[in-house]
Amino acid sequence: MIQHLDAQNKSIGIFDSGIGGLTVANAIQNVLPNEHLIYFGDTAHLPYGDKSADAIRFYALKISKFLLEQQCKMIVIACNSASSAAYNTLLEFFDGNVLFVNVVDPLVSAVVDRGYSEIGVIATKATIRSNIYRDKIKHKLQSSKVHSLATPLLAPMIEEGFFRGEISQSVIETYLGQDQFKSIDALLLACTHYPLIKKEIQEFFNHKVQVLDSTDVVANFVKNMLEKEGLLSNGKEKENEFYVSDYTSSFEDTAKMFYGKSIELNTINIW
Ligand code: DGL
User: Fold this and answer.
1) Is the CB of 79 within 6 Å of ligand 1?
2) 3-state SS of the chain?
3) Active-site residue flag, 191
């Protein structure tokens, strides 16, 4: 029997290429403990950062269809690579059937509101190639200087559990020690994997640079949007659900660090 749920008691769908988006899921759960979350990590196609925009759009469409079938009222694209490649396509394709939130706009608003003058952006190749951060920041804050760098080693390194150690320190130093970052006053971690190395990055800059990520800003954005739409849940009846498209051995251990507690994983083939 098909279950018909009141709109506000439907779930929030969240997806990423892997487990990085769990940092966003965790922030949403902290801000909105009454909401039921359905998380999908597309580990079969990780990393998205090295894929073409067309491939990312195809994955994002399939995943969004799956989440919609699970009765989601909102889908959070908890991946910058997918947000930059697929957000507009998803809005157009689903044509108002579900609310979409990308992780780029809330982070851009945070940096624009604080009026930084020299801003560094690190992200995957796909996000940097799209120029989405540079264009959106420069559009709202013309006087700012934006220095962007693709840092493709970071997501797989974190996904494999290599952080808070010699390997991560040396990779961070190689990327962030570049001259272009010498006089920045803010650095955007424009990949949802990077909150896991935020502390290391802050230490690298001796806490002299504001390091911003898309966890709390996205969670608050989600809250405001649900409030505005009258879709805040008044209590959840079941545990959050977590799906991956392919099981990886490091996933379970690392997932715990990303989400802050153990989670039960379900492998599902939606392709
Ligand atoms: N977490 C994804 C993002 O925010 C990137 C990881 C990947 O390359 O798959 O862009």
Assistant:
1) yes
2) CCCCCCHHHCEEEEEECCCCCHHHHHHHHHHCCCCCEEEEECCCCCCHHHCCHHHHHHHHHHHHHHHHHCCEEEEEECCHHHHHHHHHHHHHHHCCCCEEEECHHHHHHHHHHCCCCEEEEEECHHHHHHCHHHHHHHHHCCCCEEEEEECCCHHHHHHCCCCCCHHHHHHHHHHHCCHHHCCCCEEEECCCCHHHHHHHHHHHCCCCCEEEECCHHHHHHHHHHHHHHCCCCCCCCCCCEEEECCCCHHHHHHHHHHHCCCCCEEECCCC
3) yes
